[in-house]
From TrEMBL:
GO terms for molecular function: adenylate cyclase activity; GTP binding; guanylate cyclase activity; peptide receptor activity. Keywords: cGMP biosynthesis, Glycoprotein, GTP-binding, Lyase, Membrane, Nucleotide-binding, Receptor, Signal, Transmembrane, Transmembrane helix. Its EC number is 4.6.1.2. GO terms for cellular component: plasma membrane. This is guanylate cyclase. CDD domains: CHD. It comes from Calypte anna. GO terms for biological process: intracellular signal transduction; receptor guanylyl cyclase signaling pathway.
Amino acid sequence: LKKKTEDLKRERQLAEDLLHQMLPKSVAKQLRKHQKVEAENYDQVTIFFSDIVGFTSIAASCTPLEVVEMLNNLYVCFDSRIESYDVYKVETIGDAYMVVSGLPERNGSRHADEIAKMSLDLVAAVAQVVIPHMPAGRLQLRAGIHTGPCVAGVVGYKMPRYCLFGDTVNTASRMESTSLPQKIHISSATYDALLTDGAYEIELRGEIEVKGKGKMKTYWLLGNKNYSVQN
């Protein structure tokens, strides 16, 4: 009986760990109690989007299994690194990687700093990811960041997902799509949020045309003077 109880505890822990990888702990706790998870409004968060440069052509030149292995290598690398920061991975869709800071747990004004440090780390890390079927090749990342308000909540019943909604999400995605290989493209809002401690090396990109937004003044995030990127 004691052994069966221990086995049951172990299985329950494994199930909880898996659940917490798919949903925030606070949300999972409410769902386990059959409580309705109310959507929550956040005044300020910072959202990061990235994707792989030339992913379509890379995927076209290899088998589906090789694509899965390549993305798995990349995301295992990213997932292990983002644990060092106060961020929450929202989802991966194909080669797109989405991370947020400032929710579900609020962290004051630290969200832009946490995402900025993380993004510098990931852009440095991607060059070390091996493509199994292309040993000589190296992946390149295109990244974008925006800061602003958003709403977060759980949608769906069969496969509930924790999703973010609002213009901040769309703008962060636009920052990524208008970025360049191995560059971190940030909005004016994120630039202003990072100015507080003067720790970042930032370069003005200028005004660019952003679909659905018109002209936007944007910047390149180049580095952090006080932060050594992990190897």
